[in-house]
Amino acid sequence: MSLEAMLIVAAVLFAIGLYGALARSNVIAVLMSIEIMFNAVNLTVVAFARYVAPLALRESISSVLTGQVFAIFIITVAAAEIALGLGIVFAMYRNTETVNLTEASQLRN
Amino acid sequence: MLAIQDLAFWVLSVVAIVAALGVVLVRDLFRAALLLAVVFIAVAGFFVLLSAEFLAVVQVLIYVGAISVLFIFGIMLTRNVREGNLPNHLQIPAVLFPALLLVGMVIAAVATDWRPIPEAATDMVELAQTQSVTVLTEGALESGGFDSSQAREEARQSGLADLLIGRYVLPFEAVSLLLLAALIGGLALARSRGS
User: Fold this and answer.
1) Cα torsion angle, B64, B70, B76, B79, sign
2) The domain A3-100: what is its CATH number?
3) Chain B residue closest in CA terms to A86
């Protein structure tokens, strides 16, 4: 296990999530793909905190934790995004009886 | 010891990638949500491997415990059995763009000279990251490379919580405000119009 292997796994997860977000027509499937992308980014941040901690231990020991603090912020923002996203999905389903993105065109005209 | 970590890494990689592919390819949305929970658990395993134990626990609590259940609720409440999880009409660009991005990211990951911390300091980083959420004994810290008692004292006093309400208190408050606003917004959106 090395930094490069970790980064490549995270990149593969991110690409899979991006494909899902672009190619699916169900809103909930798109939201799930976005969650995969969030997780891939978190993996990258934590891997950098573990392997290339800047000036770690020389300047300040707590600097090896900065990446983890950022990951906590990302998790919080992802939770807020899901709460709002599902609220929008329910509102859409109530109004149009569908969760299909290709039929969501009320704003077009 | 190292062999076990490598084995765990490869097993977790295969599980995470296969489950993620399942999430985006399976037609039954309910199964996709269950596979998403598998991806989250694999990522929690990666966090343990990267000595981020607190994040692993947070990952299991928030992602596996809360977000997966929210998704399953969402699928149950809006399920459209007839259609399932259909692909849309953008298949070619949707494959091409992530593939190009993946190639770019892999090249960047392999070709960049990352200058990782020296092997000797790795144990110290791991100990300092573990110390942030648990209490290690004086002896464990000393054998991990913290020679002076001053360094040991500093390692003892640097924790995730200290950073969150110390150096990063402003982002912390901003993010809590964002969470509150998102909760109220989600409530207002999902509430039925009449009541």
Assistant:
1) negative
2) 1.10.287.3510
3) B74
